[in-house]
Amino acid sequence: MEISISMNCPSCGGALSIEEGSRTTSCPYCSSLLAVEGDGGVSKIMFTNNLDRDKAIASAKKWMKGGFKARDLPRKAEITECYPIYVPFWKCSARAAGWVCGWREETRGDGKNSRTERIPMEKMVMRDFNWNQVACDAGDIGIEHLKNLAGKAVLHDEGSIPTFEVTTSPSDSKAMAVESIRRTAVNSAGVPHITFSKVHVFPGEMELIYYPVWMVRYKYSGRMYFATVDGITGGVLSGRAPGDAMWRSVAMTLGMAAGGFGTSLGLGILLNVQDDSSGLGILVILFCLSVAGGAFMFFRHGSEMTTGDVKGGYQFGFRNGGSGVGNEAMADMLKIKVRR
Question: Pick from 63, 71, 91, 291: most CB atoms within 10 A?
């Protein structure tokens, strides 16, 4: 993802277009050489909020209907607060270049005649990445990284909007960005067993992005919950919601039944088939026990469902967390309009 900033030349007034990460530019009209630097060496950009209170609440209500949350949650949830806040995120674009060496396993032949070989691999890495991470202590709202960094934006005007205070330094964040991008670049090479890697990361300048987030707090059965809504896309970034007791009971019953039946079936296969098929019985037992284990975890932690990087509760799939690194080649160009 790249950000273009439009401004005027201080010498002749001509329009300038400066690409993200550039420290110098030349005026195409008067050929003046200009230096570009943000406050304290950091560019600050604020994204425009696209939602109002009603739209934010509507997005939260839609989120309440999904998943295994309490069935009567959309009807009984009482909205107590709904307000916008700007959350600061560090953003860094960088290019990674280098080599990754190692090997992969490849099985040839069938049955008893099969053999496993190690195939040497050598992959070159040359890709652009962008990294972002929350720049403050946002409490328990559960937002660590952003998937979306596209939208209408203006240069940040200090003091014009309520924001979380920045608590991490640009230098520490840049070091973290370089290390995260290096790890992601090495993993992107697709070498299963790495024996050597040498990847250099060439970072651009750090930028401070102020991103609009709507905080929606609600009450259900005497307990307080929340959801954070993306002020640009309207999607829910994170949240807590009560789970449904019926789904927890159903999951526990079916999981234990699957575990018991699968274990019996697997033992039957092990005791009544030839040695060549014993592996099938073991796989059946392991699979059914894993199903039972997953059902038990849902029953135990499913009283509260979570979304995003919120700690605790139960969440299907993987949390958003991760390294905050994305491939720039997959992102659209983002145009920035400067506030006059």
Answer: 91
Q: What is the largest CA-CA distance in the chain?
A: 90
**CB-based burial label for 329 (10 Å; 0-12, 13-18, 19+):** exposed
pLDDT at 105 over 80: yes
Write the CA distances from 147 to 11, 150, 297, 315, 324, integer angstroms. Answer: 39, 9, 28, 18, 8
Query: Mind listing the pLDDT tens digit for each residue in 150-173?
Result: 777 776 665 556 678 888 888 899
What is the torsional sign of CA 319, 320, 326, 331?
A: positive
Q: Specify burial of residue 98 (Cβ count, 10 A radius: 0-12, 13-18, 19+).
A: middle
What is the token pair recorded at 78? Answer: 């009482």
Residue 207's DSSP bridge partners are: 43, 91
What does residue 70 show for φ and ψ, rounded to 5 degrees? -55, 135
**How far is residue 88's CA from residue 335's CA, in Å, rounded to a whole number?**
19
pLDDT digits (tens, 9 = 90+) for 30-45: 877 666 655 555 678 8
Per the structure block, which two tokens stand in for 41?
A: 């060496």
Q: Give the pLDDT confidence of 21-30 residue by residue, as tens digits.
A: 555 677 888 8
Question: Residue 187 in contact with residue 98, Cβ under 8 Å?
Answer: no
Residue 327: predicted pLDDT = 63
Runs of H (alpha helix) within the chain: 53-65, 73-76, 170-188, 245-272, 278-301
Please list, in sequence order, all residues whose beta carbon lies within 8 angstroms of the beta carbon of residue 172, skipping any fewer than 6 positions away.
Answer: none
Predicted structure pTM score? 0.69
Average pLDDT along the chain: 78
Could you tell me which residues come within 8 angstroms of residue 251 by beta carbon, excluding any fewer than 6 positions away?
Answer: 295, 298, 299, 302
Tell me the three state secondary structure of residue 167: coil
In eight-state DSSP terms, residue 139 is: T
Residue 74 tokens, joined: 């959309």
**With 0-12 CB in 10 A as exposed, 13-18 as middle and 19+ as buried, what is 284?**
buried
Burial of residue 131 (number of CB atoms within 10 Å: 0-12, 13-18, 19+): buried
